[in-house]
Amino acid sequence: MRRLRPVPMLICAVTALILAGCASTRSPESEMAPAPIPVLPPAFPPQDIVGRWGLAAFHKQEDQERTELAAQSQCKQPYIISTGPTGGVIMHLADQATPEELRLKGAPGGKTYIGPDGEPGGMQDREVVSFNGRVLLLRWMDTEVQGRYGTMVYVRCGPEGEKRPPAKRKPAAKPKPAAKPGPKAAAAPATPR
């Protein structure tokens, strides 16, 4: 019988260990990272949502119409969306007391998001569900925040710069004067006898 030499066996063992180590430790660059979502132009420019809005929210889709009416009634104390210093819009993020400048970010499929700088659809973003110029519906991307706040309904408050005239009261109805007795019918002349 032939006896194996220890050096070639040692070389084979070390080579096998090196190859096994290379196979199990991959660098992050070598793995396929998901492609970033491209930022596209939004469906509408930021200035389209600048203004005064009545604000309300709903959790159930069947409450949307009622919530739009509730939002419209909030125009007495409107939510103000203004233009940011770098072209975004000034709005609040979830659970933030101070508004900050947010971006309108377009995404594939014609979607538009409102949120801080970064990829569209981030956890702090809101997706624009619909916008027709008068009613804006926004849904939070963070499911926990969406569960607390619901779908936000913004209803535009009248034309910008226009003050609503105070409601005019109808004058109280004046009581009708009592009917005056008309002239008495003249007595028929007496017939001679």
Protein topology:
Elements: H1 6-24, E1 51-58, H2 64-73, E2 79-83, E3 89-91, E4 100-107, E5 111-115, E6 126-131, E7 135-140, H3 143-149, E8 151-156
Provide tags for this entry:
alpha+beta; elongated; 193 residues; 8-stranded antiparallel barrel
Describe the structure.
The protein is an alpha+beta fold. Helix content is 19%, strand content 24%. It contains three helices and eight strands, in the order H-E-H-E-E-E-E-E-E-H-E. It has helices at 6-24, 64-73, 143-149; strands at 51-58, 79-83, 89-91, 100-107, 111-115, 126-131, 135-140, 151-156. The protein has an eight-stranded antiparallel barrel with strand order 1-2-3-4-5-6-7-8. Strand 4 and strand 5 (111-115) form a beta hairpin. The longest helix has 19 residues, at 6-24. The chain is elongated and about 100 Å long. It starts with 5 loop residues before the first helix and ends in a 37-residue tail after the last strand. The relative contact order is 0.14. Mean pLDDT is 80; it is low at 160-167.
